[in-house]
Amino acid sequence: MSHKFNSRLDLSVLEELYGNDYEYAMLMFDLYLESIDQELARLKEAIETAQREMIRQVSHKIKPVFLMVGLSSLNAIAKQLESGHGTMSIDELSTLYGELLSQIELTKPILIEESKKIKRI
Amino acid sequence: MIRTIIVEDEIMARKSLEKMCQKFNQLELVGVYETAEEALITLNKDSIDLILLDIDMPGMSGLDLVEKLVDLPQVVFTTGNTEYAYEAYEYDITDFLKKPISPDRFAKAILKVEGIRDKRNELAIASAKHEIYIKSDGRYIRLPYDDIFYFENIGDYIKAITKKGSFLFHDTMKGLDSKITNPRFLKIHRSYIINMNMIKDIKDNTVVIDQKVLPVSRAYKNILLNSINLV
Fold this sequence. Notes:
Chain A has 121 residues and is an all-alpha fold. Chain A has helices at residues 11-18, 22-48, 52-68, 72-84, 90-120.
């Protein structure tokens, strides 16, 4: 059985991580969909309360998670949050967070659809 | 089998490591922990060969955990940042994997783990021909077979009587017997294993070693007499 991932995802990363093991990819997509909102809530709270070390910890933690589901552009935003946690203003960090949040919401349907397609095969 | 634990607080990384471990028959996954504190409890009571260890965790970090371990198993660090690499390699670790970890890179790390395990086994086998190590008073003490007179069982402990003094260590006679590879060591009583090269004489149901008279059980007497060059 073969499956072609949605071209809006980073196909080279997905190929490197999962090869033809689509079940493994599906497991990761599902885990991402289950857990990302909770991580985002932690990040939001950290920014709102200006807990810079917490901003670093959460963005560090979610950074590779985005790559695991082929969302390289979100990985880049998480990197900026992590590297800027001590130097950027809270407003700037908040803006980055907003960008991250909107991209996550935009990409969720893609991952939900991918997971469904894999389940069917 | 390589007894392995995973220490990782992020769920996707944790599941990914579990999934990759399942593909290697030589890895026996004996524990998966979300915190270093939980893993430390296992590491202090169980024999673990390999830790797949995240560095950046809330509370105790992976580096803190390694710092606390007296007997360091092989460690493969997993992290999202390469900036930890320099500090991590200070601990004589086996490998350092940047997340997310590809199966190919994971396989290379396991190959390294196996190489180190094989090398250590060879060294241990070579060492076992000439000596044993015992843990006494928090130290590993090397006892060359040629220096040992006998071992005496005292409750939950064993006393090694040697040319360099006596050493008490925690073990059972059965456990010790299985670790001694030198054929000149013989159990002569439920409480004694002797170095036959140190026997001064044998009389009735006793042997004399290092001016001590040690009992020989009826069950072991024939084995003893068949093991000496009696003319």
